[in-house]
Amino acid sequence: MCGIVGHFAFDLANAKKVDLLAGVRAMNHRGPDDRGTLDETHRGIRAQLGHVRLSIIDLSPLGHQPMTSGNGNVTIVYNGEIYNHVELRRELEALGVQFRSHSDTEVIIASYEQWGPSCVSRFRGMFAFVLWDRAQRRIVLARDPFGVKPLYYTRNGSTLSFASEVRSLLALGVTSRRLSKEGLASHLAFGAPQEPHTAIQGVFALPAGTVMTVSRDQAETTSYFTLPRESRDIREREANETLGNLLDDAIRLRLVADVEVGVFLSGGIDSSAVLARTVALGANPRSFTVSFDEKQFDEWNYASAVAKHFGCPHERILLKPQAMLADIGNAFDSLDQPSGDGINTYFVSRAVRAAGLKVALSGIGGDEVFAGYQNFRRMQWLERLPSLPAANAFGLRAGGHVERVLGLMGSGNAKARYRHLRSMFSPSECRALAPQTQEPLLSTFLPSSDALSTFSRLELDGYLRNTLLRDTDVMSMAHSLEVREPLLDTRLVEYVLTLPSNLKLSPKVNKPLLVAATGTLPKAATDRQKMGFSFPLEAWLKTDLRDWATDLVRDEARAEKAGLDPQQFATTWDRFLAGKLTFARMWTLLTWQAWCTKHALSF
Questions:
Q1: What is the pLDDT of residues 570-584, one digit of tens each?
Q2: Backbone angles phi, psi at 124, to 5 degrees
Q3: What is the three-class DSSP state of 300?
Q4: What is the DSSP letter of 33?
Q5: What's the rounded Cα separation, in Å, for the pair 364 and 346?
Q6: Which of 192, 439, 531, 582 supports an S-S bond with 339, CB 3.0-4.6 Å?
């Protein structure tokens, strides 16, 4: 796990010199074990590449980056893990390839030299890399199928710049410090800027599952991964057996490391399933749980019961509001883009890294893949409801906004319904809070034949990628911690999305597919109400964090610079304090304002 940054100039006469080391220093936290740079001019192209390294596989200097092929034709900077690199290495060796190291980085180079840019379709893992192909005089950028690892870029005339984090591009000086209208609009609508846009004007995210090739005269983006759209008719026993094998394979690959691997454990089904199968594969990992004095948010009893059931060492991370308040500035400084969800991962990652771990397995993706959210059931209800009165009869809530309910009922389009189910603020509220923004568009989407699979694909492309994965990456890497995601293994996800809805929902247990495929989970994991990974921030905002939040709200000048209407912002805060507004919506505004203030950004 690492951080990458770079700059290419195709027109040397007019190229602006960038401070590559500034871009590298901006992400030192991502790789404290090593750093490297390359700055060269070759056949009229200037290439500047930077890398910081968190050593996980092949801890020797042979894993140093930027890494160049033996023939000198290709140089790579790479962030992530190719979990099947051992199998690929054997295949390449059979073709006559000789390796100098045991790193997966060298496997990527050899794969590219053997199969070209299409080599990415062979990789199982989380990755973002940039190849400088001297022979072809082109740059190749690639990102993993689900966008677990970030890759941002900006183009300005004859230059291309890229980085693992937006703030590294800001440090390079290749983009303005101006906020993006699209970023603000999508943040208000969904709680985080939605790809391909970012919070910064002119900076974009390379789409997940794509390869971009850039030369002097053109740039071409090609998708190499699409999820299946058709469901299959299959018996439950066969599905459970196949899924169990896929789950074990996904975890086995993610246990490969030259350092200790731990587990994030909430005590819910997803993380408990990961721990259960990890133990079944012969490992005995340390597990970690965030705990609070506020019992309604505390999962310690559940998690400790699960850890005890599987005989694993378990550590409690007790977090108090005073500790969070003391470090909240650093947390927002680590948040590479504004988000209403990322603060949680910052604190748990800090504690796990302090315990001496570099790698932890997570149950992230389980809700999206295995239909764990209540919204999956709501989507099914909406498919059957012909009218607004019927919706009210089912007790659906829309935050008191008739506009949102009408939007839910007024369209048979799954994407439109997803938008309304996931939205933080309605279009009219967004216009009031930020008058200069326009309603954001969701990405292009083709529905599946199965309603639940359709919603899973929307969640994978929406909330998971733009909030959960982005926050997990940047907040874990703020503490030089690598988080791995077995429930997002491509083969596992592809299989689950082809299974029919009747196997995914049950009135007796949440995520019945995952529970059955895992084997015997303790009742502490299965016989409980879903809590989700959340902090008692609502209560803290009205007590320990109130002064911090009030200072943000009352700074009208900063609110205007951040694109928010100061009066509407203040009114929203008053409504929250009066109990008339949900915490999530208020936190969405506060995180945008805090992030813009911290990084001195404005429209």
A1: 999 999 999 999 999
A2: -110, 110
A3: helix
A4: S
A5: 15
A6: 192
Q: Determine contact, residues 6/26, Cβ cutoff 8 Å.
A: no
**Distance set, CA 196 to CA 214, 278, 440 (Å):** 18, 35, 12
Q: What's the CA gap between 426 and 401, in Å, rounded?
A: 8
- List the beta bridge partners of residue 78: 129
Q: Residue 168 and residue 147: Cα distance in Å, rounded?
A: 19
Helix pair 236-254, 269-280: axis angle to 10 deg: 70
Residues 6+ apart with CB under 8 A from 224: 118, 120, 121, 209, 210, 211
Q: Are strands 261-264 and 219-223 parallel, antiparallel or unpaired?
A: unpaired
Beta pairing class for 159-163 and 138-143: unpaired
Residue 396 has pLDDT above 60, yes or no: no
Q: What HEC string does 382-424 produce?
A: HHHCCCHHHHHHCCCCCCCCHHHHHHHHCCCCHHHHHHHHHCC
For residue 229, report the phi and psi dihedrals to the nearest 5 degrees. -115, -10
| 3-state per-residue secondary structure call for 99-120 | CCCCCHHHHHHHHHHHHHHHHH
d(CA 191, CA 204): 18
8 A C-beta contact, residue 424 and residue 194: no
Domain ranges of the chain: 2-223, 228-533, 536-603
Q: Cβ contacts of residue 97 below 8 Å, gap of 6+?
A: 110, 114
Element (H, E) at 210: strand 210-214
Q: What is this structure's pTM? A: 0.93
CA angle 200, 155, 176 (to 5 degrees): 35
305-364 residue pLDDT tens: 999 999 999 998 888 778 777 887 788 888 999 998 888 788 889 988 988 899 999 999
d(CA 378, CA 368) in angstroms, rounded, equals 14
Which parts of 519-577 fold into alpha helices (H)? 523-526, 537-541, 546-554, 556-561, 566-577
- What's the mean per-residue pLDDT of the chain? 88
pLDDT tens, position by position, 215-240: 988 899 999 999 988 888 899 999 99
Q: Taking Cα atoms as reference points, which of 190, 211, 188 lies closest to residue 133? A: 211
Superfamily of domain 2-223: Aminohydrolase, N-terminal nucleophile (Ntn) domain (3.60.20.10)
Three-state secondary structure of 238-251:
HHHHHHHHHHHHHH
One-letter amino acid at 42 equals H
What single string gives the DSSP state of each residue in 124-167?
A: -EEEEEEEEETTTTEEEEEE-TT--S--EEEEETTEEEEESSHH
- For 228-533, the fitting CATH number among 3.90.1570.10, 3.40.50.620, 3.40.190.10, 1.10.10.10 is 3.40.50.620
Residue given tokens 């610079």 in the structure block: 561
